[in-house]
Amino acid sequence: MNAPLPDHVLPRIELRPVPPAMLEALKARFAERCSTALAVREQHGRGESVYDAAPPEAVLFCESNDDVMFAVRLAHEHAVPVIPFGVGSSLEGHLLAVQGGISLDLSRMTKILAVHAEDLTVTVQAGVTREQLNREIKDSGLFFPIDPGANASIGGMAATRASGTNAVRYGTMRENVLGLTVVTAAGELVHTGTRARKSSAGYDLTRLFVGSEGTLGVMTEITLKLYPLPEAVSAAVCHFPSIDAAVRTTIQIIQMGVPIARCELLDAHAIRAVNRHSKLDLAEQPMLLMEFHGSEAGVKEQAEIVQELAAEFGGGGFQWATTPEARTKLWTARHQAYFAALQMRPGCRCQSSDTCVPISKLAESINESVAEAEASGIPYWIVGHVGDGNFHLSYLMDPDDAAEHAAVERLNVLMVERAIRLGGTCTGEHGIGLHKMGYLVQEAGEGTVALMRSVKQALDPKNIMNPGKVFRA
Amino acid sequence: MNAPLPDHVLPRIELRPVPPAMLEALKARFAERCSTALAVREQHGRGESVYDAAPPEAVLFCESNDDVMFAVRLAHEHAVPVIPFGVGSSLEGHLLAVQGGISLDLSRMTKILAVHAEDLTVTVQAGVTREQLNREIKDSGLFFPIDPGANASIGGMAATRASGTNAVRYGTMRENVLGLTVVTAAGELVHTGTRARKSSAGYDLTRLFVGSEGTLGVMTEITLKLYPLPEAVSAAVCHFPSIDAAVRTTIQIIQMGVPIARCELLDAHAIRAVNRHSKLDLAEQPMLLMEFHGSEAGVKEQAEIVQELAAEFGGGGFQWATTPEARTKLWTARHQAYFAALQMRPGCRCQSSDTCVPISKLAESINESVAEAEASGIPYWIVGHVGDGNFHLSYLMDPDDAAEHAAVERLNVLMVERAIRLGGTCTGEHGIGLHKMGYLVQEAGEGTVALMRSVKQALDPKNIMNPGKVFRA
Predict the structure, then answer these.
(1) What does the pLDDT read at residue A399?
(2) Which helix (H) or strand (E) holds A321?
(3) Which among A208, A256, A426 has CB closest to B203?
(4) DSSP for B453-473?
(5) Which of A144, A429, A461, B13 has its CA 20 to 30 A from that of B310?
(6) Which residues pair with A183 in a beta bridge?
(7) Cα dihedral sign, B329-B332-B338-B340
(8) Are strands B189-193 and B112-116 parallel, antiparallel or unpaired?
(9) Cα angle at B278 between B272 and B283, to 5 degrees?
(10) Which residues of B touch A452 (CB under 8 A)?
(11) Chain B residues 326-345 within an 8 A CB cutoff of chain A
């Protein structure tokens, strides 16, 4: 048993069936790339959220813009829901086919369409993953910094306005998408943005689609900013007597304007999991995992400032990782924290929630959430992109214990409402999906959500694009 | 005589009169803050574009959100156009009341509402100018970097998605607005965004309003990112044998990832004007005016790299300005280039157009535009935020010479169409306004402009917000 769907999506009103004629037309075009097998449908109707799968009626493995246009046009004609799918790493229930419909799997659209190394831009198909992208452009001397942890697809990352470990220096998908090719809800192909670094030409449709969670159209091609690989990179871990001390160090780093490239918090629970999973022997106490990018001298200078700041808060045991191998080992461990943590409670399911607050409120935001988590007795772990004021609190829930589900949800309410009260947001990078629809209204207000709804109705009048997500359409 | 309105806004279809009852209601509330004097109306119906003024019927000097809501609600009820006004420095005809209506002058809304120095954010009323803002936060050790040259209002800068000299390092208004208070077309007050540095909560309405040129609502309060004043700042000028050499140096600087804070091109014509106006004795040949921000060592390092690169392209005569006074002198001269140039041809009117291209195309983009300008015989001058691939070509036109107007417009077509062909945009930072509506369609395509139109219709169904601008509603 997984978590039941939240009240606001129950009952699954208005299941909109795929008419037989439409299914026939899809099968005729997609052949074996149109699957109605239950296992395939269940895998596509779930993601990494705690909810039961809500499988779509069919999964289409798209290979081209034409495939996507063909499917969306049929769906538009028959008013059938369309849910774009990347690698399925979504955490907030984005992929559940709560109104039925078809899943458009873009994971085969993996072409790097154009590398313009001289302009520091690249255009990719939506199914390219961030690891594939960085592998394929390695020889250009450039890299794409956005790193949400999971090896997500660029399309999925754009859809949830993802960010992750490097965002403190390089920004999020909001800042790093220059342009898009989108299949609209009517099945038309449009382009937004250009390859120029800035523009004042008309409405910023690029950023309207980025973060729209599949509810406004299907992004099929994405033009991204790239960055020169830094001359020098150095990573360090530093241990602290408390989470509070680590967070206060972070606040100082940011307020002083140190251009730190990564500033990650791991609590003792996360480190314990990582140690066991990745066979490391990190001290099992709160830790900052940091990275510095720049010239040799610049990196040294940043590291010295940070070491001084950390010392003021009792941080010590600096361990440096300057070789690529040592750095990879540390960051691999960080990236596997999610799966490592799952293994700490066999058979559990993880509910991971993220909030983001103004940096001066980060200590309050984390400390109070930790106190609540400790008091609950439910296993939890914390990692955070704390340089942004963003952290993740994840509970390891017994999937058969309804009371524990309910307790976790109550804890989540406390954490999210605190973030909003502190001037922050109910989600820094996971998105609204199904889970946070109520919090979006709390955060933004009814009037602002009404504007979002107007935009949705304008661009998707039949409400076929990932319906039932973000807000009630 | 000024330039006639372009064909696509003529005839001034559908002048929508302010009903007497509405005018009475406005006068009752605003009293002497409601002006119908011709001089006031003409000043508010023009800006810095080449067009004849198209005055609104009344100008309201707003002092609060309530003032704005009151006026917009009346306008909404009577379907009367509303044109927000900051300081009037718009260049593309944004302020012309081509369908009549009322101008909302926000220049008295000059409160700094909240400085959160510890979070590097500030919230201001829309009428605060960038110079006022930086003056008032000086003691916090922070600054707001966006600098379009003119001492524009923050509201106006947000409306046109402005950028300017610092954008190469700090981004544009797109990257630096965290949240907004907006009076919608129905006169409702809504808030977008939060003070958190990032968020995945729902549609990015903040960036939808930023750059919407007053056509979707009235931004009355703006929350901005601030930055710590750099430990060290140093400015330098460097002269080049040709514009091409200066541009190629810039391309290398960007491609190498040097974190230069400002990288401005001035051509010989601009320098001649600046020398005369500001009593300087800069060599009258193409010049880069650069600024470096960072630690003492970091600034030195950047400057050394740039000097080496410049030398490869024949750049020389580096002159450093490390004292605040020396830097202020240089940047003041740069900022006065516009007014300095106007004085080079007494009685002239300046048509300034800007484009932005991927950096590798910048040399081609500028060189061909310069060749065309030279061949025309019409006085011109060039400045550019070349680190972004962005430059401005400005012609000094005889206002009584219709043939010259037409020639300048033909030259502008060539420049803009070239930028679009090279993968760039028809405007890097001035906006579409009236002048570039046709180019927006060329750049984005009919389908994409149709999406913009849908958004406009959804948020402003009566088409009262700055109607007739950006695209045909």
Answers:
(1) 86
(2) strand A316-321
(3) A208
(4) HHHHHHH-TT--BSTTSSS--
(5) A144
(6) A189, A218
(7) negative
(8) unpaired
(9) 40
(10) 202-203, 205
(11) none
Please say whether the beta carbons of B57 and B101 come within 8 A. yes
Selection from A123, A114, A389 nearest residue A250 by Cα: A389
Phi, psi of B336 (to 5 degrees): -90, 5
Residue A9 has pLDDT above 60, yes or no: no
Average pLDDT score, chain A = 94
pLDDT > 90 fraction of chain A, expressed in percent and rounded: 89
Domain with A166 in it: 112-228
Q: Which SS3 state, helix, strand or coil, does residue B259 take? A: coil
- Give the global pTM: 0.97
Q: Report the Cα A172 to chain-centroid distance in Å.
A: 10
> Based on the domain organization, do B178 and B251 belong to the same domain?
no
Residue A260 DSSP symbol: -
Question: What pLDDT shows up at residue A329?
Answer: 86
Partner residue facing B448 (CB), from A192, A207, A211: A192
Q: What's B126's domain CATH number?
A: 3.30.465.10
Residue B396 lies in a domain: yes
B356 shares its domain with B323: yes
> Tell me: the pLDDT tens digits for A369-418?
999 999 999 999 999 999 999 999 999 999 889 999 999 999 999 999 99
Phi then psi for B416, rounded to 5 degrees? -70, -45
Query: Which residues have C-beta within 8 Å of that of residue B413, sequence separation ≥ 6?
Result: none
- The DSSP output letter for A2 is -
Identity at A466, one-letter amino acid code: N
Residue B72 lies in a domain: no
Do both B221 and B239 map to the same domain?
A: no
Whether residue A290 lies inside any domain: the answer is yes
Q: Which of A189, A33, A63 is nearest to A125 (CA)?
A: A63
Question: Lowest-confidence range among A325-339, A374-388, B262-276?
Answer: A325-339
DSSP state of A4: P
Of B184, B257, B426, the CB nearest to A451: B184
Distance CA B443, CA A195 (A): 12
Give yes or no for residue A330 having a pLDDT over 90: no
Question: Measured between CB atoms, does A167 come within 8 Å of chain B?
Answer: yes
* Whole-number Cα distances in Å, A364 to A167, A357, A388, B157, B220: 22, 10, 15, 34, 31
Same domain, A363 and A289: yes
Residues 176-235 of A with CB under 8 A from B: 184, 188-192, 194-205, 207-208, 210-212, 216, 227-228, 230
Are residues A264 and A327 located together in one domain of the fold? yes
First-to-final CA distance of chain A: 29
Q: How far apart are CA A277 and CA A340, in angstroms?
A: 5
**Predicted complex ipTM:** 0.96
Name which of B204, B358, B447 is nearest A208 (Cβ-Cβ): B204
- Percent of the residues in chain A that have a pLDDT greater than 70, as a whole number: 97
CB pairs under 8 A between A and B: 282
Chain A contact present for B438, CB below 8 A:
no
Which one of B204, B228, B252 terminates a domain? B228
Distances (CA, A) of B22 to A65, B78, B187, B267: 52, 8, 15, 51
Claim to verify: residue A348 and residue A290 sit in the same structural domain: yes
CB-based contact A22:A34 (threshold 8 Å) = no
Residue B348 near residue B398, CB atoms below 8 Å: yes
CA distance A318 to chain B (A): 23
